[in-house]
């Protein structure tokens, strides 16, 4: 029985897949699909089922012509999951719980589309226990994703994203990069350059409470879970306003950064809505 937090959504890819395996996406391989590619002679493609009588009568060389079609293909899909310590933050819910929800929904949706799925988890390094190769079977991936909420370690950065690119296939794929993206912009840019062969969907997990629950007046302690360091600050309204402004500015900067790579980000705060993910693809990734 599937966990209740799985929320399937619909997606499509804005390119033609180069895979030789039959699937549900437009492809470039010749086969028995429905996308007309052109004509050739029966000698070059001996398939009488595709004979084009009209073109055969028009052929000045009197060769029998057959229609060529591209078959529909699969595409590789990846969930690249940030399991660093900043994902331990708890607002109304732990970020790691939302991560679990999104990653499981991606895996199940990929399975429903008959595509192949791979899971890649990382903190300061890629985590072997959370790396699964491309497969049609997502049951093991769902089992690994279910253990995300057991992760509680602090002091672990997200630098391992730079080790993820070599784990992707050479064929263009769809990469769901799921993170709170609380890492240096230079690292994000480096990772996006490494992922340039693929279509990246940045899913940004933010909790408004990260900056809206700050004290209006008095002492407050801020903990950086990725370094384990804390800092005591005397808050007042002006300091609180600066934190809120900084978060809003970072959101705009993230949007600009990802748009420069033609990868519009999808922000999630509080809970994952499958319909919003479907709308994302309808808006940004129509063929």
UniProtKB/TrEMBL annotation:
Annotated DUF58 domain residues: 47-250
Superkingdom of origin organism: Bacteria
Xref: PANTHER family: BLL2464 PROTEIN
UniProt-recorded name of the protein: DUF58 domain-containing protein
Species annotation: Methylobacillus rhizosphaerae
């Amino acid at each position: 029985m599937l966990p209740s937090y799985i929320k399937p959504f619909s997606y499509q890819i804005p390119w033609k897949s180069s895979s030789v395996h039959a699937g549900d996406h437009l492809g470039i391989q010749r086969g028995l699909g429905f996308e007309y590619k052109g004509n050739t002679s029966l000698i070059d493609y001996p398939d009488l089922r595709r004979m084009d009588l009209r073109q055969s009568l028009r052929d000045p060389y009197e060769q029998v012509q057959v229609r060529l079609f591209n078959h529909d293909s699969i595409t590789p899909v990846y969930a690249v999951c940030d399991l660093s310590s900043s994902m331990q933050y708890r607002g109304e819910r732990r970020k790691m719980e939302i991560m679990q929800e999104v990653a499981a929904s991606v895996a199940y949706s990929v399975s429903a589309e008959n595509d192949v799925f791979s899971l890649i988890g990382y903190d300061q390094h890629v985590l072997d226990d959370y790396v699964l190769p491309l497969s049609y079977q997502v049951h093991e991936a769902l089992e690994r994703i279910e253990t995300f909420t057991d992760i509680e370690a602090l002091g672990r950065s997200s630098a391992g994203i730079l080790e993820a690119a070599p784990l992707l296939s050479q064929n263009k794929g769809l990469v769901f990069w799921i993170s709170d993206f609380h890492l240096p912009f230079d690292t994000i840019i480096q990772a996006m350059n490494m992922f340039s062969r693929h279509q990246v969907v940045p899913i940004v997990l933010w909790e408004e409470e990260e900056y809206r629950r700050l004290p209006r007046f008095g002492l407050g302690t801020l903990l950086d879970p990725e370094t384990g360091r804390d800092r005591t600050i005397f808050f007042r309204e002006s300091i609180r306003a600066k934190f809120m402004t900084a978060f809003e500015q970072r959101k705009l900067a993230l949007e600009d950064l990802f748009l420069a790579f033609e990868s519009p980000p999808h922000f999630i705060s509080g809970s994952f809505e499958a319909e919003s993910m479907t709308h994302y693809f309808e808006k940004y990734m129509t063929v």
